[in-house]
Specification:
The chain is α/β, with parallel strands linked by helices. It has one domain: Ribonuclease Z/Hydroxyacylglutathione hydrolase-like (Metallo-beta-lactamase, Chain A), CATH 3.60.15. 18% of the residues lie in helices and 27% in strands. It has 5 helices and 15 strands. The strands form 3 sheets. Strands 1-2-3-4-5-6 form a 6-stranded mixed β-sheet, with helices on one face. A 5-stranded mixed β-sheet has the order 7-8-9-10-12, with no helix packed on it. A 4-stranded mixed β-sheet has the order 11-15-14-13, with no helix packed on it. A hairpin with a 4-residue loop joins strand 7 and strand 8. Helix 4 packs antiparallel against helix 5.
């Protein structure tokens, strides 16, 4: 996508997860390790000769699936403990329903035995931390709402914002027990203020890259929801009854 920057996607699953290999002159960061269906470590090692540190945008299963293949893993301090826990079996079985699988799975992969191997972080991240890669620096932004330890990575010199699940084109999940709509709203107000200085927004699902105006659209959408000015429709889901708000390029899912 740019010099030393690769997007690694998983297009044959409905989650369409995107991880990013961000290289510098001395080191590389792999932002998220996907669902663990394929071997992302083998892919990343073909794209760089630099030592790779995994940085997790947050702890959800579709972003940490191959953590266990890497020596060095970093995540925000609020979510480090989640990495060491087993992902719920019912969640993984639901992920492997036939309608979620859109293409051939790797040889030897058995959907019925799909598991996320627990991992452990050897670095805890905080707001403002700098990840120096040599000629490229990534600054950690704590952007909670979707989850308490969600982060974005900002490269100010190139105007790149890597947003994890905080920003993407599609339905945004704010219905989890650990999600917080009001905190998410504040996060989006903060990210909106960055839009004018950005070139690309690089999310972890669906379309990439996005233009920075998506941050303005999302901030305005969250404001409309907070004011009761946005229409919603009821839907049933595995998380129970939800309110779904639809905007031009994204949606928001909240508990009813």
């Amino acid at each position: 996508m740019a010099q030393g920057l690769h997007a690694i996607s998983e297009p044959y699953h409905a989650e369409f997860v995107i991880s990013y290999l961000i290289g510098g002159q001395e080191a590389a960061v792999l932002l998220d390790t996907g669902m663990g269906i394929g071997n992302i470590q083998a892919v990343a090692s073909q794209l760089t000769d630099q030592p790779i540190m995994v940085v997790n945008s947050h702890h959800h299963y579709d972003h940490v699936g191959d953590n266990h293949r890497f020596e060095h893993v970093a995540i925000h301090e609020a979510e480090a403990g989640f990495l060491e826990q087993e992902a719920p079996e019912e969640l993984l079985l639901d992920a492997m329903r036939p309608e979620n699988v859109l293409g051939a799975l790797p040889d030897g992969f058995d959907p019925a035995r799909y598991k996320i191997v627990p991992s452990r972080a050897d670095r805890l991240l905080h707001e403002g931390d700098a990840l120096e890669l040599g000629g490229r620096c990534l600054r950690v932004l704590h952007t909670p709402g979707h989850s308490p330890g969600s982060i974005c990575l900002l490269n100010e010199e190139e105007g790149l914002l890597f947003t994890g699940d905080t920003v993407y084109a599609g339905p945004l999940y704010v219905q989890f027990d650990h999600s917080d709509f009001e905190v998410y709203r504040q996060t989006m107000d903060r990210l909106r203020d960055l839009a004018q200085d950005l070139q690309l927004v690089l999310p972890s699902h669906n379309q990439t890259p996005l233009d920075p105006h998506i941050l303005v659209e999302m901030s305005e959408g969250f404001e409309q929801i907070a004011m009761g000015a946005a229409r919603w429709q009821p839907i049933q889901s595995v998380w129970g009854p939800l309110r779904r708000y639809d905007f031009a390029r994204f949606g928001v899912l909240l508990p009813q």
